[in-house]
Each structure stands twice: as structure tokens, then as C-alpha cells.
Amino acid sequence: MAVYFQKREIVVPGQLLAEGRYRPSIGTYDEGGKIFASLVGLAELRGNTIKVVPLEGVYIPHEGDFVIGTITVVAGNNWKVDIGGPYIASLHVNNALRRPYDEDISRYFDIGEVIAAEVIAFDRSGGPFLTIKGRGLRKLTDGMILEVSPSKIPRIIGRRGSMINMIKDRLRIQTFVGQNGRIWIKAPGSSIMRIAVKAFKMIESEAHTSKLTDRVAAMIDEELAAIGEILPEDEAEAETPEDETEAASEEVAPIDEVTTTEDVEKEETPTGDETTSSVEDEIREKENDTEEVKEE
Amino acid sequence: MSPEVKPDFLISTEGLRFDGRRPDELRPIEFKVGVLQQADGSAYIKQGKTFIMAAVYGPRELHPRHLTLNDRAFLRVVYRMATFSVPDRKRPAPSRREREISMVIANALKPVLFLEDYPKAVVDVFIQVIQADGGTRCAAINAASLALADAGVPMRSLVPSVAVGKADGTLVVDLGDEEDKYGQGDVPMAIIPTTDEVTLLQQDGSFTREELVEAMQMGVQACKYIHELQKEALRRAYASRAPAEEEDDDYEDDLETDLGEADLVGEDE
Amino acid sequence: MGDYSAEIISRIDRNYIADLLAQGERIDGRAYDEFRPIEIEYDVVSAKAEGSALVRMGGTSVIAGVKVLLGEPYPDTPDEGVIMVTAEMPPLASPLFELGPPREDAIELARVVDRGVRESETVEVKKLCVEPGKVVQMVFCDVYALEFDGNLIDCASIAANAALLTTEFPEHKWENGEAVPTGNKISVPLKNLAVEATVAKIEDHLIIDPVLKEEMVQDCRITMAVDEGENFTAIQKGGGAGPMTLEQVDQAFGMALDGTRMIRELIRSTAKERE
Asked: Which of the residue ranges A129-133, A276-280, B4-8 would you say has the lowest mean pLDDT?
């Protein structure tokens, strides 16, 4: 029994990681009782399981993933959906519409339209298959889609949504984060949108550095100050900026969902006059939500 | 541009080569990983004056469909030389030589790839020789395996590759252009460094059986050295994306919960 | 660079780009008449090519290499050398580029960049003649895309001109019925420098140097080669069938005059620094 890597070491394919009664997991392979890395990434030992957390890679679907896809084909009773990666997904009409529905299903989703969906099945023989029956799942019609490396998505969400919630709270934007590396963003104005994009790109390029949440927060505050926006936490009493008002009034409880298999959170309605404590409360509430969902 | 004149000697009376190297000495090698933004993975290699870029796309949807393999991904390798990479302008259309080299490179890489993880898909490896100064197929393999790792394609190991040849009767590693043109033969090879198995082996010229065995042994040693350079280049490219060493435990918590954990649900039990 | 309006771009992207333009903004924050930052690296193929340059324009990059060879002149121009520019869109450079013989868009790229150089008579072909009717110098400039994030034409045009401007090759003279090197190195006889600027039309907006997402939603584009005398030497309207008004074309002319002036100065100054 021996482990041959340091904590958080960057390992490369073919590197011997351990010998003995360890269990190979993601990013590793077993050859004659020895465990080697099969990917570039950060080696980790948890219990007796050894894995390599990948730092790159295309999107491979998993059941339960939330994804953002573009309709590429409308065919009879299903849509073909580009979700990135090697596999084109299918959305069957039964997983999208309630009966009765029009025979021409392109009326509902046409080529080029974008949906927020969930992967309900995927294996070697077929799929991936999608559904958009579920809270927050729907057609996305405005805002923008930012593409990042799918391997960076967990970091963009953060521990129990800490990163994404921080960004949303500060910028008062709506987002939907797809595991396939696509992030839907709706911002109250183009300057806020630009800061949001900058924040996500910063996370993508610095995903494996520590204290990232703090640094992204600092960057956002700096950028907000530069465009004369008001920080929600420090300036809670101040007047609501124009853009914000617009957004708040537009807010119709649409998708505001950041969801991983672990993190499910409720829709929030940023009003533009939160106090520091109310923000914290909200986060606490969310964490409670998360626990509940886990127990289910 | 380079003068196409046969040098007086390939091995000097002191036993040194045309460019001053010892018989077992490689040319300077520079690897850089992550050089092309559009590609899923990329790397370049500069080996002596040879300069090659490799890009990997995929695993992605395969076109045309008739190439589809139901139990694994299709590995497609395309090796191309720029018209200006050689002394005379190369014709722009793909040559038979380029097609054959594409095939042997694919065969050199295939044994290390877990292509069975991506049935029906394709992994595309595009290699562009920008400047050719000997050993391009080997340099291409060195760069391509780094590009594959950069793309996150799971693999048993990187694949290092080198050519061993014979110049004025002496076995020499990593042939330069002159040795390639005026020497007595050439043995390009690639290995899986974890098992020392050979995945590329070609030969031309004239060697005795003993010479070939010795040449392959020299090749394995040189490949192991190149393998170290590959690993170093890969680590260097990712080091900037890794957590700083002196940082607190705060990060650890982040790491365990943030990174890849979503993929592991149900697997830990 | 080609007509990627045929690719499926999500409606969200399309609307987002259009909405921003309506507010006077572009997706990357640039002004309508602003190029992305341009970097030129010379002599990247110094051991085999007589001239070379790698050019980066934001996320687009290309490499150009020049070969100068001896050959027979064309029968109809016995005292003129040959200059030819080609361009390739290899699949290495973009997930959108396909394997196989060049598609229409790749052929258009090559021809438009070639016209920019040839029609402006950038190269004095008579000075490339070694012996009339027998031997001339043939200058081949080949451009390869490395990374494609829009506006390949302008990037290729910069690279071709930068590589040609810094090309040096062995001078030859005619002696005893054959071409022999004089031992001197000479430059390509350039009397002019014409570079291209591309303006995309999206609805009623004209923007210079479009990125890929902008190309995907453009109605059309117009590429203009402008020389040192500020004369237009080649124009190509392409990248979609959308019509333009004469006023819009004239507005694009103005953008191209400013853009190409900046690019010519950049090529001249960076080529000079190199020495």
C-alpha cells in the first residue's frame, strides 16, 4: 500500500498514483494492481478512492445534468438538440409539452432556439435524452449565452452555490448554469453584463486557485465602482440605479436556477434594496434547501 | 533556403556529428501546451529547426457517419506540411507521403487512448508542419500526444518518439536534416514509456540486426528523456491553473466540494 | 470568414448582438470602427522560408510563409516574374473548418487576399526577371489559418504583406546560359503596400473587423484593399447575400481608409523594428 502523489499535485497521464488496495475512480486506470492517472489534473485521495479531477475536457452527459442546448433539427415528435460535446441530444415531445399540442411542433421550439433542459437518460446504446419538464426548465429567449470549459462549471457554481450566488447578489443578474459549459445570463444593462462575463471568464481561467471567490468579488466591486454602480451590501440604503429598477420590474420569476446534482436553490428576486443581513439570510435559507433536497 | 549540399563528413574525427552533437545527443526541444484557442487541446514542438503545431478536436460528433464505430471513438489523424516548410515549395494538395505518415502516427497513438470511453464519436488530431528539418513524424507524435492530454482525452500515457539513424557508420539519435538526407538509414520509433512497448517502428537504409537492436535501445533511452520533457511541459501549462502551495485549508474544502464532485455522486458509496 | 450565416447560431446570440448594436455597442466592447489588437511576429519559419510572419488579431491568427523559386515565365509575359498568394483554412484552426478539398469560402479567401496583393501591383514583377523568356523569380506567399475567430481575410492580408515585406532571397544573374547566384541577398521589389479591411453589415450597422459571432449574424461583408496612395485596389462584397445601400458602401469606404492606414503603418513600423 503506497500513494505516490502529493496533496493537490498536478499529475499527468501515465503517472503512477498508488499501489495496493486503492479504488480507481475518475481520471485513473488500474493495471496489475497499480493505479495510474489517465488525465491531466489534480490527484485526490478520499477514503481509499483515488481520482484525478480533470482540468480540461469536452462535455460528456450524465443523467441529472442541467444543460443548455440549441435546437438543430425538428423531426416529427422530437427535437435534436446541440448540447456541445460528441453527442447530439433528443428531446421527445412527451418530455416537453402537455397534450393536446399542435402537430407542427416547430411552433413550440424551432431551429436555433435555446432551451434549458435536464438530461434524463444517457448510456452507450442511446441518448442523451432531455426533458424540459421541471422547475426552471424552459425556452430561453433573451439575455446571452456564455461558453466556458465544462470542467470549470463546478467552480463557477462554487461550494453550495457560493460563487454563483455571490455574483448574482452583487450584480443582480439572472443565470442558468449548464453542466455543458454554457451559462445563460440576463443582466439589467450591458455594462453589468460585461462585468458578469468578465467574472465568469476570470473563474474559468483561474479555476484552480484558492480564495477565488474573494478575488472575483473584489474585481466585481471594483468594476461596479468604476461604472458608478452601487454595491448592494455597502450601500444598501442608497438609491437604486436605473438599470436595476428596470430589471426588478421585469423580474417575473423565470429561471434563476443554479443547479447541480447537489445544489438546488430557490428562485430569488433581487429587489435592489437588500440589506447585508437579508442577503445572508437568503444564503442560509438556500443552504437549508440544499440539505432538504439531499435528504429526499 | 538551406543549401542543399552534401557535407564533407557526418561524423568528425572527434566522433562528433555535423552539428556538433554527440551520437546520443538530441537537438534542443521546446514544448508548449495550449497554444491554439479554438482547439480543444493543442501543443507545439520546436525540435532543432523543426516546428510543428498539433490541434485536437473532440471527442466530437463524427462526420461522415459511415466511419462510425459503435464500441469506441474513431481516431482521425491528419498530418500536413505547409508549402513553405521545406526547401522547395511543397505542392498544396495532400501527398501520398502525408497520408501514410498520418496513418502511422494514428497507429502510434491509438494503443494509449481509451477510445472505448466515447463510442460513435471522433477524436481529431490535426498536425501542421510549419518548418521541416528532419524527424517531423516523430516530433508530430510528441506534440500530438501533448495536445491529446490537453484536450482531456483519457490515455494510458503520453507517447514519446524519436528517430535513430546511421551516419558514417555510427548510430545517432534524433536525425537532423543532413543526416536524414546523406546518412545510411533511419529508424523512427515511438514507445509507451510505462511498458517500453513500441507503437511506431519504421526503417529505411541499411542496418544489421545487431545495429537495429542497438538503435532501438538508444531510441528507448532518448524517448524516456523526451517523455520527461513532455511531462514537464504539461505540468508547466497547468501549474498556473493549480492551487498555490502555501494556501490555507479553506481551499481544500472548496476543492473537495467544487471540483468534479458532482460527477461522483453515488460512486463513493 | 466565409458565409457562416448558414451555420446555426442560437437566436439568443443573434438577438443579443442585434440589441447591443441598437444601443451602439459590440459584444466585445469595441467601437464600430475599431480593430482588435494586432500582433505581428516575423521570421517564424526562418530556416526554410525566405520570409514569414505570424499575425494575431484577437482570437484569430494566421501564419504566412514566402518561397522564392526560379522558374520559367509565362509565355505571354516573358519579362515578368510571378507573384502568387494562396490561403488555406485547415481544420486545425476551427471546429467549423472541414477536412477535404477547399470549400467555396476557402477559395474566396485565397482569391481575395491574392487580389489585394496582385491588383495593387505591390510587387514589381518586371524586377523579378532574370533572363526574359528563360528564367524569372517566382514568389509564392502561402497563408495558413491557425485560429479562427472571425475576419480571416484581413488577418491573412496583414500576414501576407508582412511576410513579403521582410522576404530576402538570393539574387540571380544570367551567365553562360544559366541562372547563377550572385551571392547577394535581395528583397522582393515592392513599390506599394495594399492591405485589406473588412466591414460587416448587420441590419443597419457597419462594423469593422467582425469576430466570428458577428460574422454569423452579418447580412454581408465588404472587403476593401487600399494602397499607400489611398486608392482602392480591390473590393469584394461577400459573406452573405444581404444588400447594401450606396450610402452604406461609401461609409464602409471611409472606415476602410482609416483602418488600412493604421494597418500599413503598423506593418511598416514593426518590419523596421525587426532589423
From this structure: A276-280
pLDDT tens track for C30-50: 999 999 999 999 999 999 999
Domain that holds residue B229: 29-238
C191 Rama sector, left if φ>0, alpha if ψ -120 to 50, beta otherwise: alpha
In total, how many domains does chain B have? 1
ipTM for this prediction: 0.93
Q: Per-residue confidence at B239, pLDDT binned at 50, 70, 90?
A: confident
CA distance A21 to chain B (A): 15
Residues of A in contact with B242 (CB under 8 A): 8, 10, 42, 208-209
pLDDT 10s digits, B65-117: 899 999 999 999 999 999 999 999 999 999 999 999 999 999 999 999 999 99
Instruction: Report the CATH number at residue B71.
Output: 3.30.230.70
A241 CA to chain B: closest CA distance, Å?
34
Q: Is residue B40 part of a domain?
A: yes
CA distance A144 to chain C (A): 6
List the single residue in C9, C12, C25 with the smallest CB-CB distance to A140: C12
pTM of the model: 0.87
Structural domains of chain C sorted by starting position, each given as residue range(s) with its CATH number in brackets: 4-274 (3.30.230.70)
Cα A90–A95–A101 angle (5° rounding)? 110
pLDDT digit string, tens, across residues A56-73: 888 999 999 999 999 999
In whole angstroms, give the CA distance from residue A217 to residue A195.
11
Number of H helices, E strands in chain B: 5, 10
Nearest by CB to C12, which of A111, A144, A194?
A: A144
CB spacing of A114 vs C10 below 8 angstroms: yes
Cβ burial of A34 (10 Å; 0-12, 13-18, 19+) is: middle
Residue B181 falls inside a structural domain? yes
Q: Does residue A244 have a pLDDT over 50?
A: no
Share of chain C above pLDDT 70, in %: 97
Residue-range domains of chain A with CATH = 2-54 (2.40.50.100), 66-140 (2.40.50.140), 144-295 (3.30.1370.10)
CA A11, A12, A16, A18 dihedral sign is positive
Classify burial at C241, counting beta carbons within 10 Å of its beta carbon; exposed 0-12, middle 13-18, buried 19 or more. Answer: exposed
C205-208, strands of its sheet edge to edge: C205-208, C195-202, C220-226, C232-238
